[in-house]
Specification:
Blueprint (H helix, E strand, L loop, with lengths): L1 H11 L13 H11 L7 E3 L2 E4 L1 H10 L2 H4 L6 H9 L4 E5 L9 H13 L4 E4 L4 H11 L6 E4 L2 E4 L1 H10 L2 H5 L4
Parallel strand pairs: 3-4
Antiparallel strand pairs: 1-2, 3-5, 5-6
Helix pairs in contact: 1-3, 5-7, 6-8
Amino acid sequence: GFSRQMVEILNNHGVAFSSFDVFSDEEVRQGLKALSRWPTYPQLYVAGELVGGLDIVKELEASGELDAICPKAQKLEDRLKSLINKAPVMLFMKGSKQVAKCGFSKQIIEIMNNTGVDYETFDILEDEEVRQGLKSFSNWPTYPQLYVKGELVGGLDIVKELKESGELLPVLKGEN
């Protein structure tokens, strides 16, 4: 119940956090109590420093200090914009440049590598929130998705068409 309350408070305040189940590792469970000199769980840490347990977090919430102490979770739309603009040419795909994890991703990587243009990739299989969110954000239902200077170019079919028409390189260089 205490852990559930802590998670509820953190979620209500939009705090970016991760958790560890102390019941999954008795050594960690006992060791953390000794290290922190805090005998109960849950324990909240911010930037590696112990803030306290549920009572302390409730006090911080009541005083309005919790929001100042805890890092906010980045809104999905802001996160997507940041990822799309991570590099001038950004490819969202299944896998990476080194290891494509589907046929469509493999085909687009071959095309991209033959252009000589520098690009970054994001593996959508590693982040379900980005995988689903980007489909809505871009209004493009499939992967891979290619972006140049923050703008959606399209998927594999569009990239193939651009390659066939000779327009791919100028598009990738941001000339179109």
